[in-house]
Design goal:
Keywords: Membrane, Transmembrane, Transmembrane helix
Number of domains: 1
Pfam families: DUF6069 (PF19545)
Strand content: under 5%
Largest sheet: none
Structural class: mainly alpha
Helix content: 55-70%
Distance between the termini: 58 Å
Number of strands: 0
């Protein structure tokens, strides 16, 4: 009888994400984007329904707020990933950076209200936009933490 030589079989690379996702950045973006889009759709429906925001207010239309939801979650995930890879203390940095970015993101909404230059601008409409910023962060941060853990 002849023996056959052992053949090494390549194994799939293991993920470093606790979730087991092979592509944690893509998973973080996907979860954050889909969940934020759902929440923002509900906020827009409430604004246009019971809060009587004008249908002329373009930022509360699905093509506009969904596009910005995607942009926000992708940019947020890329920033989160950069910080978790480069910072010596990413959790500490993100604890003050995330709220700061959210507050700064509200400034254009406030300016929109002050300028009253867009058709359909009203307090309920702008408050809905501001709620979308906060909601997106509230949904995205746990997704980023799950798939792209920030630990000190």
């Amino acid at each position: 009888m002849t023996s056959r030589p052992a053949v090494a079989t390549p194994s799939a690379p293991e993920s470093t994400a606790p979730s087991g996702a092979r592509h944690p950045l893509a998973a973080a973006i996907g979860v954050a984007t889909v969940c934020s889009a759902v929440v923002n759709s509900v906020i827009a429906a409430i604004a246009r329904g019971p809060l009587d925001a004008s249908p002329d207010f373009q930022p509360l239309t699905a093509p506009v707020f969904l596009m910005w939801t995607v942009v926000g979650t992708v940019v947020g995930a890329l920033g989160w990933r950069l910080i978790t890879r480069r910072s010596a203390r990413p959790a500490r940095l993100l604890r003050w950076l995330v709220p700061t970015v959210v507050v700064v993101s509200l400034v254009p909404d406030l300016l929109l209200l002050a300028a009253d230059s867009m058709p359909g601008t009203s307090v309920p409409a702008v408050l809905a936009l501001m709620a979308m910023h906060v909601a997106t962060a509230a949904v995205a941060v746990p997704a980023y933490q799950r798939f792209l853990p920030a630990t000190d």
